[in-house]
Amino acid sequence: MTLVDVRTPDPKRFIPGATGDWEVIIGMEVHAQVLSNSKLFSGASTEFGKPANANVSLVDAAMPGMLPVINEECVAQAVRTGLGLKAKINKRSIFDRKNYFYPDLPQGYQISQFKDPIVGEGQIVISLGPDRQGQFEDIEIGIERLHLEQDAGKSMHDQHPTMSYVDLNRSGVA
């Protein structure tokens, strides 16, 4: 999910520059794992700490003919998160393919959402500590979107002196 500050510019926060005053705006992309017993598009377990490649289905391994089936609990978790962020819940959302090659991404693409995410704009209010006058301040951080996507697997480079290994336990986790 991407966080964007949508508050009105506050001149007291500006920094003087050679060409005029500047306001610092910091954007963040935050990745969080959906709490679910199975992966986004397969029934494989999401249990952490299992031996390498213990939580892999034929869908996760991208075997020919395997079709993904959406995990309804992951969708429900995304909607609940969106409601908690006072965000717009989109009645229509679409999954896209992000095509790229990684050794730990057997499909050669990641199933993700871009143009039509499940959750649209929302907000979160953060309470800051006291300012110089001892006043507490709340700032509103705008949420641009929250979308579901598959995680890639994990390349492990410290298991052998000359080879890298791939662990697909995380591949397909929402």
Q: Helical content, roughly?
A: under 10%
Distance between the termini: 12 Å
Low-confidence stretches: 1-5
Order of helices and strands: EEEEHEEEEEE
Give the overall silhouette.
Answer: elongated
Strand order of the largest sheet: 4-1-8-7
Describe this entry's structure for a reader.
This protein has 174 residues and is mainly β. The protein has one domain (2-167). It is built from one helix and ten strands, in the order E-E-E-E-H-E-E-E-E-E-E. It has one helix at residues 72-84; strands at residues 2-4, 15-17, 20-22, 28-29, 96-99, 109-112, 122-130, 136-145, 154-156, 165-167. It has a four-stranded antiparallel β-sheet with strand order 4-1-8-7, with no helix packed on it. Strands 2-3 form a two-stranded antiparallel ribbon. Strands 5-6 form a two-stranded antiparallel ribbon. It is elongated, with a radius of gyration of 21 Å.
Task: Spell out the blueprint of helices and strands.
Layout: E1 2-4, E2 15-17, E3 20-22, E4 28-29, H1 72-84, E5 96-99, E6 109-112, E7 122-130, E8 136-145, E9 154-156, E10 165-167
Antiparallel strand pairs: 1-4, 1-8, 2-3, 5-6, 7-8, 9-10
At a glance:
The protein is built from 1 helix and 10 strands; from the N terminus they run ββββαββββββ. With 174 residues, it is mainly beta. It has one domain.
